[in-house]
Amino acid sequence: MGGTNPYIEKADYVLPQRAYRVTFITPQGVATQVDVDPARIPYGSTGLPGSLLDVAMGNGVLLEHVCGGVCACSTCHVIVKQGLESCSEGTDDEFDQLEEAPMTTLQSRLSCQCVPNGTKDIVVEIPAVNKNLVKEGH
Fold first, then answer.
1. In the beta sheet, which residues pair with residue 22?
2. Which long-range contacts (CB under 8 A, 24 or more apart) does 5-13 make?
3. Which residues pair with 32 in a beta bridge?
4. What is the topology classification, in CATH, of domain 20-128?
5. pTM for the complete prediction?
6. Would you give per-residue pLDDT tens digits along the chain (138 residues)?
7. Distance (Å, rounded) from C-alpha 3 to C-alpha 17?
8. What's the half-sphere exposure (Cβ side, CA atoms, 13 Å) at 71?
9. Other C-beta atoms within 10 Å of 130: how many?
10. What integer pLDDT is reported at residue 135 of this predicted model?
């Protein structure tokens, strides 16, 4: 899907020009550091190119994204603990979707829409309610 949704306003973002690091922290406190190489963006077709979801999926970090990364749900909600000022501005549509997410903070973003510009390293907390982190028995 590549982060496209014809029913929402297009997000304005700048792709990074230099390498930077994203640290994803699970609710259990496990940190995974990903060195982002601008030449590898996009990592896949999930979320906006270079978005936190794109980076996570391209590097084996489990992050729920029921809508496929098109800003149509709130399951990819993350909390940007450091480096938020280097991320793209959220759109009204993104913030409308975030209203549906539990445990939001002032640093909450949808990872499918949040694109860092590479000027700072980023620290991202994955909230405990992220369903992908729970193994369900059959």
1. 34, 122
2. 5/70, 5/71, 5/72, 5/93, 8/71, 8/91, 8/93, 9/91, 9/92, 9/93, 11/48, 11/71, 11/88, 11/91, 11/94, 11/113, 11/115, 12/88, 12/89, 13/48, 13/50, 13/88, 13/115, 13/117
3. 24
4. Ubiquitin-like (UB roll) (3.10.20)
5. 0.90
6. 455 676 777 889 999 999 999 999 999 999 999 999 999 999 999 999 999 999 999 999 999 999 999 999 999 999 999 999 999 999 999 999 999 999 999 999 999 999 999 999 999 999 987 655 444 443
7. 21
8. 23
9. 20
10. 45
Quick one: CA torsion of 89, 11, 107, 27, rounded to 10 degrees?
Answer: -150
CA dist 37 to 45, 46, 49, 114, Å? Answer: 17, 17, 12, 17
Q: What tokens appear for 69 in the block? A: 């990364």
Contacts with 104 (C-beta within 8 Å, 6 or more apart), sequence order: 77, 98
Tokens matching residue 24: 């994803």
Q: Quick check: 69 and 3 in contact, CB under 8 A? A: yes
Place of tokens 């997000």: 11
Peptide bond preceding 42 in cis form (omega within 30 of 0)? yes
Q: Encoding tokens for residue 51?
A: 């978005």
Length of the chain: 138
